[in-house]
Amino acid sequence: MQDLETTKINKVYKCTLAFIFDGLDESRLTLDFDSGMVTSVEERSSVDELFASLVNRTLLPSALVWVTSRPAAANQIPPEYVGLFTEVRGFTDQQKEEYFCKRFKDETQASRMISHIRKSRSLYIMCYIPVFCWITATVLQDIPIGNKAEDINTTLTEMYIHFLLMQMNMKNQKYDGKKQREHTKLLDSNKTMILKLAKLAFEQLKKENIVFYEKDLQACGIDVSDFESTGMLTEIFQQEAGLHEVKVFCFVHLSVQEFLAAMHVFLCYLNKNMEELQFFFEETQNEVRLNCELQSESPLHYLLVKAVEKAMQSQRGHLDLFLRFLMGISLESNQNLLRGLFPHTEDSKDSVTKTTEHIRGLLQKYISPETSVNLFYCLLELNDNSLYMEIQSYIKSNRRAFLSSSMCSLLAYVLLMSEEVLDELDLKRYKTYGKGYMSLLPVVRCCRKAMYVTC
Q1: What is the DSSP code string of 310-325?
Q2: What is the CA radius of gyration of the chain?
Q3: pTM, whole model, 2 decimals?
Q4: CA distance 163 to 175
Q5: Domain NACHT, which positions (predicted)?
Q6: Residue 383 CB neighbours (<10 A)
Q7: Which long-range contacts (CB under 8 A, 24 or more apart) does 54-57 make?
Q8: Which of 124, 301, 391, 419 could connect to 354 by a Cys-Cys bridge, CB 3.0–4.6 Å?
């Protein structure tokens, strides 16, 4: 607005304006709603100060402001400045099926796809994310009709591994004229390329960057011309200061960056690359190595616990999906799928068991609803469905049970995601704290009768 004439500026104050800020969690803005407020459209200021001033209405108080964000980052905005909070939960069960019916015009193929997904509880839950529906459809479309349900990939991590394999196979066929179906050989032939992309993904995720410049690629040994064929990076143009346009890059989807970053971290663990793993530890590299040696019976568990702690410390939740992928890749079955990239696999049963116990312990404490849901998904990535079954037992049983506030959040989440309509919700069945009861309030939307006496 710096070039507007005074008469035009006056008109601005009389107009109804709407500002849409898409992706607060990706912006890395430093927000301060108590100082440095802007009051005039003629005043120059930084983007973060302009944003905060619009939100708290010191600037253009009549303007409408709409902000989209992943849940954790949305909490940066004080509740007193939020007039309406809308949670977009992704696809409903009906919309999941509609998606596959539209994606596959052949009714038999669409029906087969839906049937496969329904048989896998974790897969069916995860399909609430539209991009996951797309990747699931891409991966499963070539599966013969006769395949058994138990042969279908069932976790987010497995799906993304197969998506990576498909992208590399397409790249080989299109640019090298080769068709390679054997997983290990396919990954081994593209190993250098994939590992450089994985390093780039992690380096930029640490900085909370989703777009990056050619110099960032070069720092990871990436020649742009060699990587355009992978289908994992996309190139966009961004206007810089002045009239210049420069190339900037991003992964085809943020989740692909998070998946590759997790793969890089696990590879660093296998190679005992303490310098790269330093991100997760407060100690010096020597102390980290010593701690791993002291816990030599399950050093992987030690890393996974530290990764959980690091993700929980993030105010923006930028490590949430990365954490799920890291959990999934730690499974020996998924390590085997990535054998062409990893120098060796590791028996992780003991570490996985200890990590699931650690996560279950965290869910008995008070943690935010967003963190509770993410840890729930981490358990699914570790092929632990016991918590889901436990929640189902609370829903179906009439027995009284004590629930932590985190468990209340998960109970509400599962009920809302399932779209199941309850005949009655009686909160007297659950013993919890005030915050726990507050977490259950949204469930009133999916029950015919709700009893909140003495809550």
Answers
A1: HHHH-SS-TTHHHHHH
A2: 24
A3: 0.78
A4: 18
A5: 18-107
A6: 17
A7: 54/19, 55/81, 56/81, 57/81
A8: 301
